[in-house]
Amino acid sequence: MLHKTKNIAIVGLLFTITWFSSCKKTEDNVINNATKDVRDSVYAISQELYLWNTNLPGSAIFNPTSYPTADSVMRKIRTYSPFVNGKYQDRWSFAIEKSVWDNYVSGNSTDAGIQYAFVSATDLRVKLVYSQSPGGLLGIKRGWQVLKINGIDAISANINQLNTELAKSTQTTVFLKPDGTQQTLTLTAAAYKSDYVINPKVFSVNGVNVGYFDFDSFLGDAINGKTAQSTLNVLDQTFADFKSKNVTELILDLRYNGGGYGLVSNYLGNLIAPATAIGKVFAKTEHNSNYTQYNSTDYFTNATNGLKLSKIVIIVNKGTASASEELINALKPVMTVKLIGNTTHGKPVGYYAIPTMDYYAFPVAFRNVNSAGTGDFYEGFAVDKVQTDDFTKDLGDANEACLKSALEYYRTGVLQSTSQSARISAEIEQWNTAITKDRLKLTVYDLPKK
User: Fold this and answer.
1) Measured by CB atoms within 10 angstroms of the end CB, which terminus of the chain is less buried, N or C?
2) How far apart are alpha carbons 201 and 169 in whole angstroms?
3) Where is the Tail specific protease domain (predicted)?
């Protein structure tokens, strides 16, 4: 009987050989049928695994080596997915160097550790700062206004110059703090690990304890060979603390969470869901017609530190993607889920990481559906209350607009309608896209095993 664990312990050739031998092929056969060129290799892998593989032409017609990189091959493959509502359904297949991927999944970065966003054309704010990064260690907080970076005024008209300065290893930045004082700090890029659980808090609302935390990623370090165990440990610690404080309601902030391991999504779902969900479907994976024998189902299970909630508020926006959306989709049939913010990204599909030469290939390989059979949310999840991301205040600040709305819901039982002005303008969104480094949108599973 097939056993499937939702993680990415795919660092050796063995898993790939297991996968392809199940179809009477091996990785070597696939690659030898092409050439020892990584571009041919990632295309051959896609011909096998791609969810829409029957749309792909033969290798001679596609001509993978006519593209400059392995990733450009994968980006072209996206255009063979169905074209619906003015866009290709696949907007994510990619290839990445192993060394880059290994750092990404472990949360390892070497920079200042700060992300920025515009509130207006003349108001740039700190959007996110990791505690162990150079910026975090200097005490910089989300919500601080940025006046200058290396002498360049922090205004939208200077976006190109600002991005040039932000790419440098050293930045001298003038901040305006919430107390009205200015502070000039020199940020020097250095290695650090990202925080995945950010600013956990407990609020008392009408005598009820409401937990909150920002969850930044479903990735994380392996410990003793167990994928993302570092993240699972932090989640356990957070929920154990919530239980000790008698938390009976929860606000989960996923506004910047582009996804990660399906295993972590399922684990977090178990910590949240009610007791009545135990044994019910969390998610089903569906593959192309060549691999239907690997379709599988994951279930809600009992979690020692589970809060067993009947409802949850989740803060979301277009940065909420993939494994984050898998979690939302899984919870919707088993409990009340209220969404605050803006429409999510819309990625109901996932990958296996296929090692080939010095790369991993990530062709979209499966779609996810929940216990109700819902899965094609390519337009994202609409919210119950529109609320603009409030960059002027820190995550976990009770007066930050999204969190304030969530707390008000628990206080009144009603999500008050919000005017259209609560939506960020298209112009500001363009500026923030230009100055914010985009994250990968990920739901990654382990390869099925016999």
Assistant:
1) N
2) 34
3) 180-389
Are 296 and 242 within one domain? yes
Using DSSP bridges, classify how beta strands 259-261 and 281-286 pair: parallel, antiparallel or unpaired.
Answer: unpaired
The residue out of 192, 210, 235 marking a domain boundary is: 192
Q: What is the pLDDT of residues 24-51, one digit of tens each?
A: 333 344 444 445 899 999 999 999 999 9
Residue 43 in 3-state DSSP? helix
**Domain membership flag for residue 433:** no
Q: What's the whole-number mean pLDDT along residues 75-103?
A: 97
Residue type, 215: F
Host domain of residue 293: 1-107+194-423+439-450
CA distances to 39, 319, 327, 413 from 409, in Å: 51, 23, 21, 5
Which residues, 6+ apart, have CB-to-CB distance to 340 below 8 Å? 313, 314, 315, 316, 383, 384, 385, 387, 402, 405, 406, 409, 415
Sheet holding 197-205, edge to edge: 197-205, 208-215, 247-253, 311-316, 336-341, 385-386
| pLDDT tens for each residue of 278-315 | 999 999 999 999 999 999 999 999 999 999 999 999 99
Q: Which two tokens stand for residue 190?
A: 């250095």
Residues in the chain, total: 450
Q: Is the model's pTM score more than 0.70?
A: yes
Are 380 and 275 in a shared domain?
yes
pLDDT band at 142 (very low <50, low <70, confident <90, very high): very high
Q: Is residue 428 part of a domain?
A: no
